[in-house]
C-alpha cells in the first residue's frame, strides 16, 4: 500500500494568520515586510558606501536576528498577454492590429525561450519566547534580572499581548532602519501574508500577485 503524502498543513509550522501576524505552532510570532530592490552595481562608489554603512549601522542597532528572504520565480506575463490580445480585438486600424499581433507573438516566444525571473525581497521579523525549565523568558535581557523575586501570575491573554507588543516594536524598528537606507518598505497585511505563503507552498500553480507589489514597483 502506497503511503499517502502528508497534507501541506502538517508540514508547515504556521498555526494561523490574523491581524497581520503569522502565528507559529511553537508559539512564535512573525511579521513580514516587503522591501524594494536596488541595483547596487549602477550606484556610484560613494552611493554604494552610503548604502553599506547604512546597512551596517542598521544591523548593529538590533539586539535580535531577523531573516532576509529573496523570492525568485519565473515571471508570469499571462495577464499582460491577455490584455494585449483584447487590445488587438478592439483595434480598428488593420495595420496596428497586425503590429499588436506580431508583438504578442514575439513576447510570448521570447519568454518561452528565456527564463525571465522576477525577484521579491522580504524581511521577516521574529518574536520567540525562550523556554528555560518551567520559566518563560521573553528575551536575553531577562537573564540579567535577579532571581529573588516571586513569579508573577499572568493570563494567556496577557502573555499574548506582551508578545504582540514586542513584535510590533521590532517591526517599527526594522521599518525605520530600512527606510533610512533610502529603500521602500511596507508591512504585509493578513490577506497579503496568506497570498504570499500560498505562492511559496504552491510553486506549480499560477502565482497570485500581491496587490502591494504593484505599489512597490511604481
Task: State the main characteristics.
218 residues, alpha+beta, 2 domains, six-stranded antiparallel sheet, two-stranded antiparallel ribbon, 7 helices
Describe the SSE topology:
Blueprint: H1 8-11, E1 14-18, E2 21-24, E3 29-35, H2 45-60, E4 67-74, H3 78-90, H4 94-113, E5 117-127, E6 130-132, E7 135-137, H5 156-180, E8 185-187, H6 190-201, H7 211-216
Antiparallel strand pairs: 1-2, 2-3, 3-5, 3-8, 4-5, 6-7
Helix pairs in contact: 2-5, 3-4
Measured as a percent range, the helix fraction is 40-55%
- By DSSP (H or I, 4+ residues per run), the number of helices equals 7
Poorly predicted tracts of residues: 132-154
Alpha carbon gap, first and last residue: 53 Å
The fraction of residues in strands falls at 15-25%
Shape: extended
Number of domains: 2
From N to C, what is the helix and strand string?
HEEEHEHHEEEHEHH
Q: What is the overall pLDDT average?
A: 80
Biggest sheet features:
6 strands, antiparallel
Question: Can you characterise this structure?
Answer:
With 218 residues, the protein is α+β, with helices and mostly antiparallel strands. The protein folds into two domains: 8-73 and 118-216, no CATH class; 76-115. It contains seven helices and eight strands, in the order H-E-E-E-H-E-H-H-E-E-E-H-E-H-H. The chain has helices at residues 8-11, 45-60, 78-90, 94-113, 156-180, 190-201, 211-216; strands at residues 14-18, 21-24, 29-35, 67-74, 117-127, 130-132, 135-137, 185-187. Helix 2 runs antiparallel to helix 5 and helix 3 runs antiparallel to helix 4. The longest helix is centred in the C-terminal third of the chain and has 25 residues, at 156-180.
Amino acid at each position: 500500500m502506497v503511503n499517502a503524502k502528508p497534507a501541506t498543513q502538517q508540514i508547515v509550522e504556521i498555526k494561523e494568520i490574523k491581524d497581520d501576524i503569522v502565528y507559529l505552532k511553537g508559539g512564535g510570532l512573525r511579521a513580514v515586510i516587503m522591501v524594494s530592490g536596488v541595483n547596487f552595481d549602477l550606484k556610484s562608489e560613494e552611493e554604494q558606501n552610503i548604502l553599506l554603512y547604512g546597512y551596517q549601522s542598521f544591523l548593529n542597532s538590533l539586539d535580535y536576528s531577523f531573516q532576509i528572504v529573496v523570492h525568485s520565480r519565473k515571471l508570469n506575463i499571462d495577464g499582460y498577454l491577455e490584455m494585449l490580445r483584447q487590445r488587438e480585438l478592439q483595434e480598428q486600424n488593420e495595420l496596428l492590429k497586425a503590429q499588436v499581433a506580431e508583438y504578442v507573438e514575439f513576447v510570448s516566444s521570447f519568454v518561452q525561450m528565456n527564463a525571465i525571473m522576477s525577484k521579491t525581497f522580504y524581511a521577516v521579523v521574529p518574536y520567540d519566547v525562550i523556554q528555560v525549565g518551567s520559566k518563560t523568558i521573553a528575551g536575553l535581557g531577562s537573564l540579567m534580572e535577579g532571581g529573588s523575586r516571586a513569579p508573577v501570575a499572568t493570563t494567556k491573554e496577557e502573555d499574548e499581548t506582551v508578545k504582540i507588543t514586542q513584535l510590533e516594536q521590532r517591526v517599527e524598528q526594522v521599518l525605520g532602519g530600512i527606510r533610512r537606507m533610502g529603500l521602500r518598505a511596507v508591512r504585509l497585511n493578513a490577506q497579503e501574508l496568506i497570498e504570499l505563503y500560498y505562492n511559496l507552498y504552491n510553486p506549480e500553480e499560477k502565482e497570485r500577485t500581491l496587490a502591494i507589489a504593484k505599489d512597490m514597483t511604481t
